[in-house]
């Protein structure tokens, strides 16, 4: 019996009402512990999502853009091109119902309430790492390592990072303009949002972000954001922290271009270099100062009359030059010699080269499921399959993050493997011996096995 638009509409309304009753019934139960609370919240969240998707389908039906609903209502009333014939429409519908039950004599009414009641006992799959302890704690080890790789005076302990990660005002302002710091903060925000969605699925994130954004914009207009005060910009000039760009954070000219034309112009002017031209030319000119000593630069890069002068424009006396040379020598003594750019250890010094080679930290392994994120070393690559970033990527693909998908980083390979697993488990598999139907002379529907047996018996009776 074909499902009409009106029948689909009725069934959708019934499903929404049944889900609403289940939500009320589930929330009346008080969870015994944190695990039960999370299961209950995620069950309710899933039912709310089903209600939203069903309601959207109902809205499309009621909009009736193709006039299918209107035509069906008219057909039920017997309205045809030849006029109105109520009895003809009634008997046509009755004939269709009888034909359906004749072809499916074993059809029975399915109690939908049993399936919906089973949803109250369902335990949704919630992806947590071992360190997160099912939503009790944050697992920020990866973010901690990324934060420690920024150019601070000395590395910090993990416990210290947990105290200060929510205090960005302690980070120097010039460091906040770098690409590494931006990526660090984006990853931190992404993880916290994902963790909040897993632990508080019933909260409205859009409303929370809207409120936070409004408060931030008001504080920004009032210059009340700690660490971003507009100080040192009086009398038409910026402070040194805002104009100087630390080139150690940039490996190519393209990365330096992300700073923006205004920041490049301020940095070039502070060094006494020409600040005109396109963004590409400014970035190339400033990038020269990273590896080339200031006094060996070509004269064409300097503003006329600024060659050999101090970057702030004043003439340096011999006493000032001696003081500057002493301070530079002290800085050189404090700088750590690290020509191979080895990772820093717990003591703030580069790790031994043999340890660097042993763990394969020079080997870059990318994962497409994690958004082409790079993992350095085999150990970090193997651990990431159980971390939140990979779990979130698998969840977006609609694939369970099981051991079958270890070592798989390609989206296409993961989808193909998931399809093969489903076929092996019998899902979406066509079984002709059970599902293929045949009709005999008496118009009875039989599957392939029963039909062949029936034909065999009839043939033997005919022979004998």
TrEMBL record:
GO MF terms held by the record: RNA binding; zinc ion binding
Main localization category: nucleus
InterPro entries: Matrin/U1-C_Znf_C2H2, RNA_Proc_DNA_Dmg_Regulator, SDE2/SF3A3_SAP, SF3A3_dom, SF3a60/Prp9_C, SF3a60_bindingd
Annotated spans, Disordered: 304-333
Places the protein is found: Nucleus
One term under GO cellular component: spliceosomal complex
Gene Ontology BP, a term: mRNA splicing, via spliceosome
Keyword Protein biosynthesis: no
Domain Matrin-type positions: 365-396
Annotated keywords: Metal-binding, mRNA processing, mRNA splicing, Nucleus, Phosphoprotein, Zinc, Zinc-finger
Family in the record: Belongs to the SF3A3 family.
Protein's recorded name: SPLICING FACTOR SF3A-RELATED
Native species: Salix purpurea (Purple osier willow)
Taxonomic lineage from the root: Eukaryota, Viridiplantae, Streptophyta, Embryophyta, Tracheophyta
